[in-house]
Amino acid sequence: MNNTHTLVLLRHSKAGHAATDFERPLTEHGRETARLQGSVMARTVGKIDLALVSAATRTRQTTEYLHYGGLEIEAFQYERSLYANNNASATLDLIREVDEEADTLLVVMHEPAVSELALRLCEPEDGAQILTRGLSTATFAWGTLDVPWKELHTWKLGGLVPPSM
């Protein structure tokens, strides 16, 4: 454990259609985009200690393809609440419960919560204005914080990384 944490917020990759919204799988394009973003994320933030992943099919598949792209993820925790309670406050509460042993945390989730949370964590000088349009599919925002997870209120925005394809 170190004194600085890294938080990565990722919107799932492009999904197709299914009988229910919860079961929507990734499209072929979505799978390839997630794989490529896995490579980018590995170069940008390194190994992920813990991934909190919405239990929906498209978020689980996104996480799987991030791994295929070379992103090392030490532990996974599938959270139905990231789907059912799709809001920034509920997600922030979940993050604040993360064990301090996790230095780098990835949260794979849905709109509108992913954009709302990224914006909420930003200080105005960190470029919050770039987040006001929302995170498109497979885009991730990442930042650092120098406080325990349970004290998370703001981060130092490191970047907003849309897919390059």
Q: DSSP strand (E) fraction?
A: 15-25%
Strand order of the largest sheet: 3-2-4-1-5-6
Taken together, the total number of domains comes to: 1
Kindly state the percentage of residues in helix: 25-40%
Whole-Å distance between the termini?
Answer: 35 Å
The SSE order reads EHEHEHHEHEE
Gross morphology is globular
Written description of the protein model:
- This protein has 5 helices and 6 strands; from the N terminus they run βαβαβααβαββ.
- It has 165 residues and is an alpha/beta fold.
- It has one domain: Rossmann fold (3-Layer(aba) Sandwich), CATH 3.40.50.1240.
- The chain has a 6-stranded mixed sheet, sandwiched between helices.
- α2 (57-68) links the parallel β2 and β3.
- α1 (28-45) crosses α2 (57-68) and α4 packs across α5.
- The radius of gyration is 14 Å and the shape is globular.
- It comes from Mobiluncus porci.
- This is Phosphohistidine phosphatase.
Key descriptive features of the protein:
165 residues, 21% strand, single chain, globular, 5 helices, Rossmann fold, six-stranded mixed beta sheet, 6 strands, 31% helix, alpha/beta
